[in-house]
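To close the chapter, one final illustration. This time we ask the reader to focus less on the individual chains and more on the assembly as a whole: which components sit near each other, and how the overall shape emerges from the parts.
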Amino acid sequence: MALNKQTILAQLLAHRSVRQFKKKPLTTQQVETLVEAAQHASTSTFSQQYSIISVTDPKVLTEIAEITGHSWLLNSGHYFVMVADQFRNFQIAKRNNADPFILHTTDKFLAAVFDAAIATENIMIAAESMGLGATIMGSILNDSNRMIQLLSLPELTFPLLGIAIGYPDDEPELKPRLPQAMMHFNNQYHLTPEMPNLVDYDQLLAEYYQSRSTHRRAETFSHHIISELSRDRRVRSDLLHNIKAQGFLVD
Amino acid sequence: MALNKQTILAQLLAHRSVRQFKKKPLTTQQVETLVEAAQHASTSTFSQQYSIISVTDPKVLTEIAEITGHSWLLNSGHYFVMVADQFRNFQIAKRNNADPFILHTTDKFLAAVFDAAIATENIMIAAESMGLGATIMGSILNDSNRMIQLLSLPELTFPLLGIAIGYPDDEPELKPRLPQAMMHFNNQYHLTPEMPNLVDYDQLLAEYYQSRSTHRRAETFSHHIISELSRDRRVRSDLLHNIKAQGFLVD
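The assembled structure is written out below.
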């Protein structure tokens, strides 16, 4: 147990997103192991409300590189798309003449998102334990409609996250996280608007960005958040519409 | 690395939800370690869009037991609530006179849900590596409005998942998961409506439910899903409204 604790905690605390890969594809067995690890994560009401799509077709990968703006994914050893999925359970409902209404609700959409995101993290951890590196990519949502078409996603499914995995070809530094006092509270949420710890954290992150080996820049956490907010509002403005168009979020 | 792989994969594949705990609270240090593990998970655009609330007040725990219908959580050694959080970044926007519009979007709500769910899984894995057991509880959403009041959650935050953690006082059997052919696809989603593997999986799960040491019942996976669908439609029917009332999902 002590060994487990030491090994596993050390890995969790050492996580970095890896975006540069050696040109070496994962084996079928490695991919199956990663999917198996995903499957053993907790799933809401044991309903297993997600699916995984392995994208191996270079044409589709090229399209995903365009959608996400991240052509480095083309060098990954394997690419997964994690999909919220109530379509499978909808088929089970149909076979048994059960009313599928519940599957369309906001509640079941959220449950599917939880399932997919939790399974995503198991893939990350399994991959890192196998000496692989990976990055979770929310940027597939830049064009969710195109992703739905590319992957032939039926009603009651929705693409959520990409995962690019491979043999690491760089060693990014560890990015300092928020002080716990700013994100962990007792019994009640109580972030003071002044956020006295933010100045120190801004400074800490600025030092990280200045001292790291590549992509050095002058940026605090506050700068980073503000630059996120300045994004073009039209990007992903179709998201709510597209989720509803797939049959989710009925009132 | 071989040791890592063996240790970590073995733990991931051995996950069970634990709902019976010895009466022994976690130490402050254990709680901090779990939060630290959560923090080191990937976070969308490094925006750290979630917060964690440790619920230690017995009155609040009793209310959560009522909301979830799971009084066994009162015996856990620690209870976390994972919260989607754009309020902190909203404060950063305000201090810097930046337009916070983006924080209200469906996209940023989803990003916060991803962050919180991914961090949740890191807590689960860290806890298990420390010899603890845990269950993720979506049932706090049975009354999200009451949860918001109980935890004093401000605008642009939303409670998503509870986590009951403690020293295990039972050893649940491992529940068989769907065959990979039913949930892992290549390049395109292609679940055939006939689902030829479902009969075997239904049988496998029925055998599991019949043979396990407690809570034996005659139930296939199909039965299980159908019984989920028969839930009262009014349960959680306020969810979309409550998410919007917290300032999320603007079109």
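The mean pLDDT of chain B is 95. Chain B has nine helices and five strands. With these observations in hand, you are ready for the problems at the end of the chapter.
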